[in-house]
Amino acid sequence: MSLVFDGLILFLLIAFGIFLIELSSNTQRWNKTKKRVLFFISSIIWLILFYGSFVEPRMLVTYTVPITLSDNATTTLRAVVIADPHLGPYKKSAWIERVVQKIETLDPDIIFFLGDAIYNKGHQAFDLWPLASLNAPYGKYAITGNHDYLNGGIQSVKDMLSQTGFTVLENEREQILVKEKSFTIIGIDDLWNGGNLTQAIDRSLPSEDLKILLSHNPEVVLYTSAREIDFTISGHTHGGQIRLPWIGSVPSLPTLLGRFYDKGLFFVQDKPLFISAGIGESGPRARLWNPPEISLLLISF
Fold first, then answer.
1. What is the C-alpha radius of gyration for the chain, rounded to an integer number of angstroms?
2. What digits encode the pLDDT tens for the residues 112-145?
3. How many domains is the chain partitioned into structurally?
4. Strands (E), the chain
5. Is the pTM of this model over 0.85?
6. In this structure, what CATH number is given to the domain that contains residue 290?
7. Is residue 206 helix, strand or coil?
8. 32-50 and 2-24 are packed helices; what angle lies between their axes, rounded to 10 degrees?
9. Fewer CB within 10 A of the end CB, N or C, for the chain?
10. Are 149 and 158 in contact (CB under 8 A)?
11. Which domain holds residue 126?
């Protein structure tokens, strides 16, 4: 499928390029005013196609979000979030090396990987290897996304994440102590592939603990069991991948939450939900007004 999208993008770039060359010639087919208008419009389309396909997807920005989860907050946790690299035809290990270099400048206390490591094949997970050099005092935690299950790739993804030092949470949780305060990380498998929040919290959760949920798909916040969660962190949407000013995501989003919940910080039933725009692409290689992002969450509790 990636070859189809690449072929379409190449065809459009060549077609508009030829059209621009023809407009620049001395042809008498159009009058001067019409030629100028057509040249301007065609140039804009060509530039947008080129920029969205080959420039913006190679940009990498950091998005810092402070969030307070307690009225008497005394501790702030620097949590780095990466999601949806979709390693394969568009992004490989060199891209992950760039991501690692950026993360190292953020001095993270903890690192969350939110799934969709691969595009569609298990061997693509090998390109995660640069993540092994990342260190965080409170650990590195990962969950799976829907693309990780394509063509039987899930075990390769889990194995590679483990080899790079991540604890892969599979409908389970882990308690962490930070400066005499504890919080619980709950991680579930992809919702379309066995993710089960009820199973992850089937035993009594410490009522005094902050409860952070890692779920690839943000629609988990609609579940009744999510009422026990203080803060949910998700990916999956890519922020729509292709966006327009004042409009937001151009394509529909693959969640039950709707188009409004595309990327960033939201509140659902008075509970915070953060959705990462991710660092990779699926479908077309393009991004527009939506560069790949690493998120730094400053979680105070």
1. 22
2. 999 999 999 999 999 999 999 999 999 999 999 9
3. 2
4. 61-68, 76-82, 110-113, 140-142, 167-168, 172-178, 181-187, 210-214, 231-234, 243-244, 248-249, 264-268, 271-275, 293-300
5. yes
6. 3.60.21.10
7. coil
8. 150
9. N
10. no
11. 61-300
